[in-house]
Specification:
This protein is of the alpha+beta class. It is built from six helices and ten strands, in the order H-E-E-E-H-E-H-E-H-E-H-E-E-E-E-H. A hairpin with a 4-residue loop joins strand 9 and strand 10. The longest helix has 18 residues.
Length: 203
């Protein structure tokens, strides 16, 4: 695919919002703003999925955008998300307090059964990693609400930004990574921080 030049670097993005958004106390992660309302279909169960339900359960979320026929950044992003999953398990954070979410950028192709198979290929643990698709119009609205986009590039494949969003248990965006800065250990450190800032039952 054509990899967009409009990539975001983790630290400058945080610095940009640091002056405009209130920090969570003395947290090193800025409060970028509320996570957009996201209601789509969970590919494995083919049931409605609401991102807000994760926050109702006191969970942080790491949200990515991919599509199954991508041969560029998407498989690399999904593989790195898998590494985050495994690091979360290693440090004992997988389960009750965190979930991974991957949203399709190409719902016309990524029907539930196809997206579910894609998740299996990449070793996604369905107990805490959700792959979302749905009606193309609804998916397009969700993509736009996250300030994302996907369009046909010069090569005929989908071009899109590389952005992965950390959402805290209060439903606030706290960090935006690109693939270059999606280091599993650093991401898990950020996840641990936002979880510790929101003790279980404090919502």
């Amino acid at each position: 695919m054509v990899f967009t030049a409009a990539l975001l670097v983790m630290s400058p993005w945080t610095a940009w919002f640091g002056g405009a958004a209130a920090l969570q106390g003395d947290s090193r992660l800025a409060d970028i703003g509320p996570a957009p309302e996201t209601v789509l279909v969970e590919a494995r169960t083919e049931q409605p999925f609401r991102l807000a339900d994760l926050q109702s359960e006191g969970k942080a979320a790491l949200v990515s955008f991919v599509y199954t026929t991508c041969n560029g950044s998407c498989p690399a992003t999904t593989h790195t998300m898998y590494r985050v999953q495994e690091e979360l398990k290693r440090v004992g954070l997988w389960g009750d307090r965190v979930a991974l979410v991957s949203i399709s950028l190409d719902p016309k192709t990524d029907r539930p059964e196809i997206l579910s198979r894609y998740s299996e290929i990449f070793g996604a643990d369905p107990s805490g990693w959700h792959f979302l698709t749905g009606d193309p119009k609804q998916v397009a609205e969700v993509i736009a609400s996250w300030d994302m986009w996907a369009r046909i590039g010069p090569s005929g494949t989908l071009d899109h930004p590389s952005r992965i969003f950390l959402v805290d248990p209060n439903g606030r965006q706290r960090e935006i990574y690109n693939l270059q800065f999606l280091d599993p250990e650093s991401v898990v450190s950020d996840i641990r921080l936002v979880i510790e800032e929101t003790p279980a039952g404090a919502r």
